[in-house]
Amino acid sequence: MTENVVFTGAVNAVKEIWEERIKKHNEDLKREKEFQHKLVRIWEERVSLTKLKEKVTREDGRVILKIENEEWKTLPASLLKLSQLQEWQLHRTGLLKIPEFIGRFQNLLVLDLSRNTISEIPRGIGLLTRLQELILSYNKIKTVPKELSNCASLEKLELAVNRDICDLPQELSRLLKLTHLDLSMNHFSTVPSAVLDMPALEWLDMGSNKLERLPDTIESMQSLHTLWLQRNEITCLPETISNMKNLSTLVLSNNKLHDIPVCMGEMENLRFVNFRDNPLKLEVTLPPSDSPEEEEEKELFGLQFMHAYIQESQKADDQINCPTTLSTSINTDG
């Protein structure tokens, strides 16, 4: 009995030793693999950095990283060694995300990552206080972080053709230098209040969205000179649009407008207007022009059509408001 106990104890001791050795061996293998992976990452980052350096150019005194039609789904951390970059132009690279360390590129003036597959904007974007242009059109972005409002130098923001953006945080109204905003081909059903409150905005494109109407407060956009609203579902225009004294270009083609407000005839600075492909209730035909150039000008600038339509609309209203005259005319003919 004692011999069996001793034998069992010896077996267990040997087993423990072997288990400990196997455990240590496995840990050594794990550490070796981790070390090998680390070496591979270091090597890959060095190779990537070398490739990135080859894409750096100087134009007009700016240091620019320019990549197009090459696969860069992610950007390596080694990119931080190029912190002097002032502009990124990465197009059609398949980039999946803006790196979290983007905020460390304090010299960036232009960030152009259009035509990629980016799905979100990191909150760190707000650290780029010198950024003047942010171009993220043709991506897969759905929301915009409020931290973007901290980019105090931003003058141009393009988010066109992301398809699913439907609102903007109110904080973006703090972008006091923003003059150019492109929100076309998204999913906006109303003009965001943040946009209405942007004090310096001069150029706005909200074409190809789901807008059904413009708010009465559209008149608050006193700096706006160009407004693109083509391919929406707008059925009527507010009277307050005539108070937009600086508006010179207004595109409303392919909407559901039934009428043109009479007050628009008072918009003296309006130079280009387009009401094509709307179900307007009055049919107005302009007299033929003497030359093809004049015909093209009428087609292009559309102001003659707008004023002619307003005149016809006023005539129709006068007839409605003067039934006696209409009745007398009918009786005379009889």
Automatic annotation (TrEMBL):
Source organism (scientific name):
Castor canadensis (American beaver)
This chain's function reads: Component of the sarcomeric M-band which plays a role in myocyte response to biomechanical stress. May regulate expression of other M-band proteins via an SRF-dependent pathway. Important for normal contractile function in heart.
* Keywords in alphabetical order: Cytoplasm, Leucine-rich repeat, Muscle protein, Repeat
> How is this protein organized at the quaternary level?
Interacts with MYH7 (via C-terminus).
Q: Where is the Disease resistance R13L4/SHOC-2-like LRR domain?
A: 78-187
Q: Where is the protein localized?
A: Cytoplasm, Myofibril, Sarcomere, M line
InterPro entries in the cross-refs = Leu-rich_rpt, Leu-rich_rpt_4, Leu-rich_rpt_typical-subtyp, LRR_dom_sf, LRR_domain-containing, LRR_R13L4/SHOC2-like
What's this protein's name?
Leucine-rich repeat-containing protein 39
Recorded GO cellular component terms are: M band
